[in-house]
Design a protein that fits this description.
Helices cover 36% and strands 21% of the residues.
């Protein structure tokens, strides 16, 4: 019987879950997804890459002459990621036989997907006149003066959370449109698009076009034509919108410019912020980078005069930033609380429930537990294709890899020694269970990659949270930035250390940004608010600065560390990554590449280049989807001559038959 039908026979969800768990342990019950009720809704066949974009591009280059339709279809998928087979065929001239051939070669995979109607744009009443505070007016005046210059360049708009940066954006767009020029506004997440779209549609109506990866290919093409024809001169979208063919572009805005999602992980490996700065310079348009927690590189360029700088240090409504309470989770453990919900946070949640106010909880790890480990031998179930432990998901009783998508049932005992498997770490699913046990009957809306789908979109979930007044919103990065709910008076970071000790040189910057952004979700209305920060290292300098919302102190402390490590903004990190199915060949290729690179760098022509070459060394995730990876890192000044050298070496490497099956690509200041 369907689970929903069975649940209706029980008085509470907890009773149902306990009964199912008991029957499952006695092997009297099993779950079968094939028993799910079928519907008559129409489905479409969708194709997606089954290999990395680099591999697909290599195959396309080889087949450019002998199989041009296969090459064209693969290159289109490298750009769009996935799409309906019929649309892919229409745009490339390929046939279903071409798709079948590529699927047999293991380059793409196909699946049936429910065909959803295109969401209609919500009717929004026209917006009234904008009212700017003194700080907003001062920021607008400074940016507007820069926009009027012959070569406006770039500017950083640094404003604390809730300072009203969006209002400044709208006033700048007003003046840009009045001058007969167009504007592009970039946001880091699709989740932020609907919220901004309502504001933009209320002000600019049909002049607004939206571009992001959730649109079907045909929708993107139609939108592209509207922009190119001039019917739409305000473009709102994610990173790919930076290439929109806006006529007479006068303004580019990169909101939340610190976000890593602006970096493309597939070829071409561009960073939308850097493309926006370059495009603005080419088209004599002003590029505005907006953030409450700018990257160290952007702030450094601003304080050294390369960018303009406008500051907004107060919230728009005059209310103070929410006070942040640091909770020492080691003390919670000593006092017998092994839950990820600390006692101060539980008390705060109960108080919010009593007052009828809402809370946002952030944890950047989905699933139930980070992994399972044997209590006898210590072995951990690993992904067969990636060098990572599998994440346990209680909802479907499976172990899953969040990189390649591998999934397998949870073993009853350790496959190595037969010992008992114990859950290690905590994810959003586990937190949801703990909240339901601690606060019975209280509504919890979970928002992560497992709950967001084509049906349950970001917009629908946020609308439910706002309109149904669901007490608690629990989520990953989707809930950490850009959201504005007046009734949210409590925000909490459940594990502030999660990103602090990563190998990336930006670890401290990322941690500071996330804490400040999550804390800023609270107290944006008349009710005020507060934030709670749970950590195992309460004395850490970055944690302290984030709790104080003191970006300037963090910036001053981070600069000497960056200089000591030879990292941006003082030097650039150019990374050459090698990948292939045979580990030994990958390492041989990397060593040969380094030998040639070293030889050229020591030649007379490149004697002026200061580049320290490190590696090859394993990537932080050394194997992904059965492909081994290692990398060379150059700490250097990113000059044109050095870029041309690396581009030449990568092209020559691709031609070398002795390294067939090994790919290479270059990242500039990329993330792992």
């Amino acid at each position: 019987a369907p689970e929903r039908t069975l649940r209706q026979q029980f008085e509470s969800p907890q009773t149902f879950d306990a009964a199912v768990q008991a029957l499952r342990k006695r092997s009297l019950l099993r779950e079968d997804a094939s028993l799910t009720q079928k519907t008559n809704e129409k489905t479409i066949k969708v194709a997606a890459l089954a290999v990395s974009a680099e591999e697909a591009e290599q195959f396309a280059a080889k087949k450019q002459i002998s199989a041009p339709l296969q090459a064209a279809l693969l290159r289109l998928l490298c750009v769009v990621g996935a799409g309906p087979c019929r649309e892919l065929c229409d745009l490339t001239g390929a046939s279903m036989q071409t798709i079948s051939r590529l699927a047999k070669l293991g380059l793409i995979e196909t699946h049936e997907q429910e065909q959803l109607r295109s969401p209609k744009r919500e009717a929004v009443p026209p917006a009234g006149p904008l009212t700017l505070s003194e700080e907003q007016q001062a920021a607008f005046d400074g940016l507007n003066r820069q926009m009027q210059q012959e070569k406006p360049g770039a500017a950083l708009l640094y404003g604390v959370t809730g300072s009203g940066k969006t209002v400044v954006y709208l006033r700048l767009i007003d003046d840009c449109l009045a001058a007969g020029r167009g504007a592009i506004v970039l946001v880091p997440e699709i989740a932020l698009t609907p919220q901004l779209l309502r504001q933009f549609s209320a002000r600019y109506g049909a002049r607004v076009a939206v571009l992001h990866s959730a649109l079907r290919i045909s929708e993107r093409y139609e939108t592209w034509k509207r922009i190119r024809s001039g019917d739409a001169d305000v473009v709102l979208g994610t990173r790919s919108a930076v290439f929109a063919p806006v006529q007479d572009l006068g303004l580019l805005i990169v909101d939340e410019e610190q976000e890593h999602t602006y970096q493309s992980e597939n070829a071409p490996r561009y960073h939308a912020r850097e493309v926006a700065i370059y495009r603005g310079a080419q088209e004599h348009a002003l590029t505005v980078l907006g953030s409450a927690t700018p990257t160290v590189e952007s702030m450094y360029r601003a304080v050294t005069g390369a960018f303009g700088l406008c500051r907004m240090t107060e919230r728009y409504n005059g209310r103070p930033l929410p006070p942040v309470e640091i909770v020492d989770m080691k003390r919670e453990l000593r006092e017998g609380n092994a839950s990820i919900i600390s006692e101060p946070l539980l008390l705060a949640l109960r108080e919010n429930l009593r007052l009828g106010q809402q809370s946002i909880l952030y944890l950047n790890r989905r699933g139930t537990s980070r992994m399972l480990a044997c209590v006898e031998c210590g072995s951990v179930p690993m992904c067969p294709g990636c060098s990572l432990p599998l994440t346990y998901h209680h909802a479907n009783g499976r172990l899953m890899c969040h990189i390649c998508g591998h999934s397998e049932p949870v073993p009853a005992r350790c496959p190595v020694c037969g010992g008992h498997l114990r859950q290690i770490g905590c994810g959003t699913q586990r937190v949801e269970e703990q909240l339901q046990n601690l606060l019975p009957g209280v509504g919890v809306l979970r928002m992560d990659a497992d709950t967001v789908s084509a049906v349950n979109t970001h917009e629908k979930l946020f609308r439910r949270f706002r309109e149904e007044r669901i007490p608690i919103l629990l989520g990953t990065q989707m809930v950490a930035k850009g959201l504005d709910f007046e009734n949210v008076t409590l925000s909490a970071v459940l594990d502030a250390d999660l990103s602090l000790y990563a190998s990336d040189y930006r670890a401290a910057e990322t941690t500071f940004s996330l804490i400040a952004q999550v804390a800023g979700r609270a107290g944006r209305g008349k009710l005020g608010g507060r934030a709670i920060l749970q950590t195992m290292t309460p004395q850490n300098q970055t944690i302290r600065f984030a709790a104080e919302q003191n970006y300037d102190a963090f910036f001053e402390a981070e600069l000497p560390l960056r200089q000591l490590r030879g990292c941006p903004p003082y030097r650039d990190l150019l990374t050459v990554t090698f990948h292939g199915r045979e580990e030994e060949r990958v390492w041989q290729a990397a060593l040969a590449f380094r030998a040639r690179l070293d030889g050229l760098l020591h030649s007379e022509f490149y004697r002026g280049e200061t580049a320290a070459v490190l590696g090859p060394a394993p990537a932080s995730v050394a194997r992904i989807n059965y492909h081994y990876r290692c990398r060379l890192t150059l700490s250097c000044v990113n000059t044109r001559r050095l870029r041309e050298l690396l581009a030449f070496l990568v092209r020559e490497f691709a031609k070398d038959r002795s390294f067939r099956g090994v790919g290479a690509f270059v990242d500039v200041n990329g993330r792992e």
